[in-house]
Amino acid sequence: MAYVAGALREAGFEIQFIDALGESLDTRHPADHDCYLYGLSPEQTVEKIDPDTDIIGVGFGFSFEWPTCRDLVTDIRIRFPDALLLGGGEHITAMPEQTMKDTGLDIGLLGEGEETAVEIARAYVDGALELPKIRGITYVSPSGEVVQNERRPRKRELDKIAWPAWDLVPIENYLDRGYGFGVNRGRSMPMMASRGCPYQCTFCSNPSMWTTRWIPRDPDLLLDEMQFYQKKYGAENFDFYDLTAIVKKSWIVDFCRKIEERGLSFTWQLPSGTRTEAIDGEVASLLYWSGCRNMSYSPESGSPAVLRRIKKKIHPDSVIGSISEATKNGMNIKCNIIFGFPGETFREVCESYWFIVRMALAGAFDVSVWAFSPYPGSELFGEISGKNRFKMDDKYYDSLRSYADPSSTISYSEHFSDRELKCLRSFGVILFYIVSWIRRPYRPLKMIWNILRGRQESRSEQGLVNLFRRSQFTSTN
User: Fold this and answer.
1) Which of 78, 79, 73, 137 minimizes the C-alpha distance to 110?
2) Which carries the bigger pLDDT value, residue 313 or residue 305?
3) This prediction's pTM
4) Which tens digit of pLDDT belongs to each residue from 80-116?
5) Is residue 157 part of a domain?
6) Which is nearest to 415 in space by CA: 322, 317, 306?
7) Is there a contact between 279 and 246 (Cβ–Cβ < 8 Å)?
């Protein structure tokens, strides 16, 4: 949304940007969907919209946010019956028909939104908004049919897109509190060095949202932006939100060397999950010396059969080698594993357990064991929903939060019950830390020291700090 706001402002439009979370990070509201909402309430959010606004856009991020975003759009429509109401993001791109039928949106933006938003705004101001002529949108025709226009081609020159409009966001609230996507290593700014992912994992919605074209930015122009944030916001760390930042070895080597050539000093992280193919000893050394301290690997499984079925084109041995090289060079590595894929057997889970042990021995610092969820826009979602294995209601969308709330774990493997899958997840995490801490008994002590001094180095330390924050919040409210 910050990118879209930046593009609209560059095109000459007056922009108001409401970041409902950032406006009030410590405020918590009970929600109707068995969870809490942090930040402004929906009513407070609507109240902040300038009454003279002509066009209102709402970001529909990931699909677990759908019920909340849907209800927010309803509230906005009641308050602004004549405004042009837009929505965009991962969920709308994956579920355009449901979105347009169940909300009061006038237009849904599919995929990248900058060019589409600017085209819509210009046509609206000129009184020439002809929806059938605009690529990359979905809307409801006069006959009540949901129409999806031809998708807009991917933006190939990312550095020609305006920078995100962070000055319109309460960014200091995040920076002062150490909030970010990665580990708290100081004042952290979000960055994107690339868009898209060339792989076709069957559980991922990337092919629907971004397509399989990986497009990197120019390293020099990327560093220009980072230096600007250092000067303007005092940024000490950068969290890269890329789907897969390290795809091409020559690009990441060039980026790291230019950091050294410029004499820049900051830390940076890859918390989203990255591929390991390009990370050998040479690259790991360059990453560390350029300031990269934390990376997340996403091998997803240690079973060759499961990896083939989900089209995860990796080899477990190469992942172990990359973890070992990265750890030797001072990197802090977190790994992500998924259990419960359709058809996954207990034997295949045991293969992943052995892989978890190997990752711990190789030096990985943290692990997360998620439960598979059929995510809208993914290949597996299409297969499972086509078999009517779940109902597309709010309960389903709530289950997509199982990464943060294990109680909502649902098994889509015919070999495990929901309860069994929860136990398999828990055992995988316990197994990892037992092996890791036996192999490196100093790590628990280091974790405690880092937490006490107020600067974390690992995702587990970050998680414990967040847990403490929430417990304090609960006890005082």
Assistant:
1) 137
2) 305
3) 0.93
4) 999 999 999 999 999 999 999 999 999 999 999 999 9
5) no
6) 306
7) yes
Domain that holds residue 10: 2-148
| Nearest-angstrom CA–CA distance, 196 and 190 | 17
As for how many domains the chain has, the answer is 2
Helix axes 281-289, 249-262, angle to 10 degrees: 30
Mean pLDDT of 114-133: 96
Mean pLDDT over 375-389 rounds to: 89
* Nearest to 229, CA basis, from 185, 177, 258, 266: 266
Compute φ and ψ for 431, nearest 5 degrees: -60, -45
Does 88 share its domain with 120? yes
DSSP label at residue 457: -
If one counts every other C-beta atom within 10 angstroms of the C-beta of residue 371, the result is: 24
Beta carbons within 10 angstroms of residue 389's beta carbon: 12
- Residues 15-49 pLDDT 10s: 999 999 999 988 988 877 667 888 999 999 999 99
Per-residue DSSP letter, 461: H
pLDDT band (50, 70, 90) for residue 462: confident
Alpha-carbon separation of residue 14 from 7, 8, 62 (angstroms) = 11, 8, 27
Q: Is residue 356 part of a domain?
A: yes
How far apart are the C-alpha atoms of 246 and 273, rounded to whole Å?
Answer: 10
The reply to whether 143 and 210 lie within a common domain is no
**Same structural domain, 284 and 321:** yes
Helices and strands counted in the chain (H then E): 19, 15
Q: How far apart are CA 183 and CA 180, in angstroms?
A: 7
Nearest partner of 460 among 72, 87, 183, 164, judged by Cα: 183
For the ranges 132-141, 214-223, 384-393, 418-427, the lowest mean pLDDT is seen at 384-393
What mean pLDDT comes out for the span 428-432?
Answer: 97
Are 212 and 121 found together in one domain? no
Contact 236, 185 (CB under 8 A): yes
Average pLDDT for residues 383-398, to the nearest whole number?
85
- State yes or no: pLDDT of 474 exceeds 90: no
61 plus 210 within the same structural domain: no
Q: Which two tokens stand for residue 96?
A: 């355009």
Residue 295, token pair as written in the block: 């990376």
